[in-house]
Amino acid sequence: MPSIDIRRPHRLSSTEAHAVIDHVAARMREKFQVATQWQSDSTLTFQRSGISGKIAIAADEVRVSAELGMLFSPLKGMIEQEIRRKLDEHFS
Hints:
Blueprint: E1 3-9, H1 14-32, E2 35-40, E3 43-48, E4 51-57, E5 61-68, H2 76-91
Antiparallel strand pairs: 1-5, 2-3, 3-4, 4-5
């Protein structure tokens, strides 16, 4: 299975970063019908048929990792580009 692993540095407080990820998760649920759940104060998991992953918040970095199933494999480049764009938008 193809995977995605993207890291972005940030300078937000833990509370601010958590709020940004909450906002991103709401958009993911709305746009892609993914289920999201906080596993801890710093890790949000997401899943739907054909994709699963997590968004982890560290003190100075956000990391998005995902595994794509066969359905989403051809879209890997487009998905990565969109993730990078959103991270740049919220964490630059």
